[in-house]
Amino acid sequence: xxxxxxxxxxxxxxxxxxxxxxxxxxxxxxxxxxxxxxxxxxxxxxxxxxxxxxxxxxxxxxxxxxxxxxxxxxxxxxxxxxxxxxxxxxxxxxxxxxxxxxxxxxxxxxxxxxxxxxxxxxxxxxxxxxxxxxxxxxxxxxx
Amino acid sequence: xxxxxxxxxxxxxxxxxxxxxxxxxxxxxxxxxxxxxxxxxxxxxxxxxxxxxxxxxxxxxxxxxxxxxxxxxxxxxxxxxxxxxxxxxxxxxxxxxxxxxxxxxxxxxxxxxxxxxxxxxxxxxxxxxxxxxxxxxxxxxxxxxxxxxxxxxxxxxxxxxxxxxxxxxxxxxxxxxxxxxxxxxxxxxxxxxxxxxxxxxxxxxxxxxxxxxxxxxxxxxxxxxxxxxxxxxxxxxxxxxxxxxxxxxxxxxxxxxxxxxxxxxxxxxxxxxxxxxxxxxxxxxxxxxxxxxxxxxxxxxxxxxxxxxxxxxxxxxxxxxxxxxxxxxxxxxxxxxxxxxxxxxxxxxxxxxxxxxxxxxxxxxxxxxxxxxxxxxxxxxxxxxxxxxxxxxxxxxxxxxxxxxxxxxxxxxxxxxxxxxxxxxxxxxxxxxxxxxxxxxxxxxxxxxxxxxxxxxxxxxxxxxxxxxxxxxxxxxxxxxxxxxxxxxxxxxxxxxxxxxxxxx
Lengths: 143, 505
Description:
The complex is a heterodimer.
Chain A: E1 3-9, H1 13-28, E2 31-40, H2 49-53, H3 55-80, E3 85-92, H4 94-104, E4 109-113, H5 126-134, E5 139-142
Helix pairs in contact in A: 4-5
Chain B: H1 2-20, H2 27-46, E1 49-52, E2 55-58, H3 59-74, H4 78-81, H5 83-91, H6 105-116, H7 119-132, H8 136-160, E3 163-164, E4 170-171, H9 174-184, H10 188-225, H11 237-252, H12 257-284, H13 289-301, H14 309-325, H15 332-336, H16 344-351, H17 353-373, H18 385-395, H19 399-430, H20 434-453, H21 456-469, H22 471-497
Antiparallel strand pairs in B: 1-2, 3-4
């Protein structure tokens, strides 16, 4: 059975590096590569009545924006290098969703960048450190 | 359209007048003298009363009470039976994680609550107790529990008959289910009439209870903690009104949504602080609790010194409970209808929690604190938020300041929610155009200024009148559609028991 590698990306240079690294590894295995972009979101976030009414439309717009701005260019680049790759955009808590999604697609390994986009996590991304601590499958942290 | 222009003319007419009299000290009094009689006339029409046992019983109170009781019995005490299932829905047990990013049940409830939890829970309860005695508390709780059933019906319908606009946003609420469901039943004219009537009344309700009452009581509390007569704001109610109006305008007209988001985030925290402070007051006065409970229960059936006796306490309880939780009014259906679900019944069930949290929990806490602290006895000249503030202050001298912050936040979040409702009503009546929205927003903020300056009595009567008037078309619709909702409810429960809905948690 072919293996499946999951890459968590957030639009940062570090996560793009992780994706390229995973693609290289996947090619040699060979393994299937799935790229997941998580839009940080909590089901307990509070909206005003007006925001709530347009939430569904806003969600579509946000996903389309992530798709055209980040996901499609990244996938195109990886495909050019010959990777068997697909992409997915979801809403949720980044590290928890990465693990849940890994289970959903029966991924064998998770690849992430060491540093996320958030300027607060200068040394080690909080998503990454949480992921390393709780993931039931191997996590490859790409510097 | 003509009506709107007229309203705008009226509203703007006062502004130059206000400026002209700025030099005089009696600017607040002048505004009062002009609007007071108008408010009283409106209140007199809506509160048409019949004498019962020597007291005037307003028919609108009977209308609200009977509807809530009817729906409770008709749906087999759904308010109690489905209460637990609502927790499952709120936790997301049946929510597909793939739909994350859409409005969850929890978010729809939180949005609706930030619109309903307001000064009604703090000041309104004080009004109920000063007019109806401690016994009004019992009737308030009873009405809160029964009102859960009315809320279930209207929020289910709100989701079921919401429409999607061209820009992908949704619009729900009583306007939509009245017009669409009656049209479906071959009575489009009747549905349109009721919906238009509702939209007109909600404009009044937004101006009154959702705006003037909130700013009025927020001003009173800010005045109290800044030194009453010595305060900078003494005799400058209009200035306070202008400040609040300016903030509202920045959000609604200026489009600075961030202020609204921050306010709505702070409201749940303030509600918890308010409840915790209430508990502390009860603990401090624990020796007076038995006496307070006997006052409340005894006062419900044979109150002493309350105008109208038993019926008087009952009327106050129902009025203040309904004003606070808006069950049967049809407003909350707007906020609830944004939820992402294929089963409208689920949001109706979640909405059961709204009157429960609002009235049975928060209002009851206010009532207990007021009764336990004993400040309502011989309160005489103080009423509304000042009474609640004194009650808390008797045990926690620093609390009135915290209360002032809470009150301003509660008021502001409710004002913002209604500033949206008034635009929706305007859009329904006059078209979904930016100009209509702008005119509605301008009318709204003018009344924010006026609300601060008016006396509490006039504001309460006008606010109640307009808000309760919404219940006339809304409850007609609820009765008409009750059998449909019941069939949907039965179908949903059958499929739920059969395990047709996948569980994700």
